[in-house]
C-alpha cells in the first residue's frame, strides 16, 4: 500500500509522544508517556535518557496500534525534541555517562562565568546567543569534567555528544551497530558551538569550551533523509525530518515567511519571529537562532524569546505547594476569583531568561495581603505566562518585527480560553489558536514528509493550516497599563537574590 502518513516522535521536557498524521496534517492516533524529573540538588534538573528511549519506542508502538496501520503506510518519521538538554554517551555500549542535563539546569553557571570573563556577549555575533547556562556547551563541559577520563575518551572519538534528537536518531538507526550520529541546524544552533553563518561547528567556540570535535554529531538540514529505522514496528522507514521543538512548532504553524510568528506555551514559553534568510541580532534581549533549513536551500533564521517557566509553574503548584490535586484543577481554582487580587507571581526558579537574562533572579510572589487566597495565587501563576509573553513580544517589536498584527499560539496552556483572552488584552492584538494544536509534532511531520515527497512544497502546507479560535482585546488601556506596571515592579523584586 502507498505510504500516506507520517509519524512524529515529539520528545518534550516532561513526556514523549508519538503522533501519526495523515496528508491533511490531521492527527490520527497518539501514544504518550511521561518520564521522571530528577532534581539531585537545588538548581539541578536531569532526565534518564534510557527511560526516554524506552518511552519513545513504546509510544511509537502505541500510536501505530491505535491508528490501525503498519509501517507500510508510514512514509517517514520526524523527530522533534526539547532542545538544549545535553547527553554524552559511550559509542561502544550505547550507554550514557550520566543522566541528561536538562535545559533548565543551572549548575554550570560558574563555567559560563569563566568563559564569559565578564562579557556574556562575547560570542553573540557568531552564535546569536548570550553566554548562559541554558545552552548546551557548558553542560558538555560539566560532564567531561565530572566523569574521570571522559575528556581523553572524547578526544579519541569514543564518546558522543547529542541533544535528545541525536540520541534518538542514533539509537533508532542502529546504535552501536551503525547508528547515524547527526543533528539538524536548529538544534545545533542552541549549543553555543555553531557559527550561524557557516552552519558548522566553530573552532574558536570549541576551543573556548574545550569540547573535542570528535564527539560532535554532523550538522545537517532539518528536512532530508538521515537514515532508516533499524528494528521494531517501523523497521526500514526513513527518519527524514528533525527540528528543535520551538522551530517545529513554528513550522507546524506554517509561519514560513519573514515577520510571521508563534508563541508556544509548554513547560516554558517560547516566542519565535521568522526573519527569513536574514540574521537579526537583538538589542532587546532576544536570541538569534535558525528557524529551519530545507535540504540544500538557504537557512531561514528567527528571533526567539525564551521563557524558562510557563506550564511547569502549574506543576509546581501541584507538586511543591499541594494547592491543587492535578494540573487541570489550576484553571478551575483560578476561576473562583474575579482577578488575581493584585498578586503577581514571577517564576524565576532558574533565573530569568529573555529579555532579562538574569541568573541572579529567583521566584517571587508579591502583593500578598490577608485577602489573598490560594485561588489568587493560582490565578497569578497562570497570568504570569501572559506577562512574560508580553515582555518578549515587546522586545521583538523593539528589535525589528514591529507590533504583531496577530499572534498564533499553541502548546498545552493555549487551550485555556481565559488565559488566551488575558493574553490578547495585554498585547492589544488578536490571539489565534489553530484547529490542530499539536503543532510541534506536526512541524516535524511536515519536515519529514517534504523530504520524501509526501507534500510538494510550503504552499501545500500553508493550505492545511486552519484557525480554531480567535481572541480579541477587551481590556481598557488604563487597566492594561496599571497591570503591566505592577508586573514590572514585581520583576524588579525578583532580581539580585543570588550573588
Task: Give the gist of this structure.
With 499 residues, this protein is an alpha+beta fold.
Poorly predicted runs of 5 or more residues: none
Q: Which radius of gyration do the C-alpha atoms yield?
A: 22 Å
Residue share in β-strands: 15-25%
Shape: globular
Strand order of the largest sheet: 17-18-16-15-21-22-23
Helix coverage percent:
25-40%
Q: What's the number of extended β-strand segments?
A: 23
CATH topology of the domain at 5-246: Nucleotidyltransferase, domain 5
Query: Ends: how far apart?
Result: 63 Å
Largest sheet: 7 strands, mixed
Q: Structural class of the helix and strand makeup?
A: alpha+beta
CATH homologous superfamily of the domain at 5-246, by name?
ATPase, nucleotide binding domain
The CATH architecture of the domain at 5-246 comes to 2-Layer Sandwich
**Count of separate DSSP helical elements:** 16
Tell me which oligomeric state these chains represent.
single chain
Summed over residues and divided by their number, the pLDDT gives a mean of: 93
Give the CATH level 1 class of the domain at 5-246: Alpha Beta
What does it look like?
It is globular and about 65 Å long. It is an alpha+beta fold and about 500 residues long. About 35% of the residues lie in helices and about 20% in strands. The model has no long low-confidence stretch (mean pLDDT about 95). The chain has helices at about 50-65, 110-115, 125, 135-145, 150-155, 165-170, 185-190, 205-210, 245-250, 310-320, 330-335, 375-400, 415-425, 440-450, 460-465, 475-495; strands at about 5-10, 15-20, 25-35, 45, 75-80, 85-90, 100, 160, 180-185, 195, 200, 220, 225-230, 240-245, 260-265, 270-275, 285-290, 300-305, 345, 365, 405-410, 430-435, 465-470. The chain has a 7-stranded mixed sheet. The chain has a 6-stranded mixed sheet with strand order 3-2-1-5-14-13, sandwiched between helices. Helix 9 (about 245-250) packs across helix 14 (about 440-450) and helix 10 packs antiparallel against helix 12 (about 375-400). It has a domain at about 5-245: ATPase, nucleotide binding domain (Nucleotidyltransferase, domain 5).
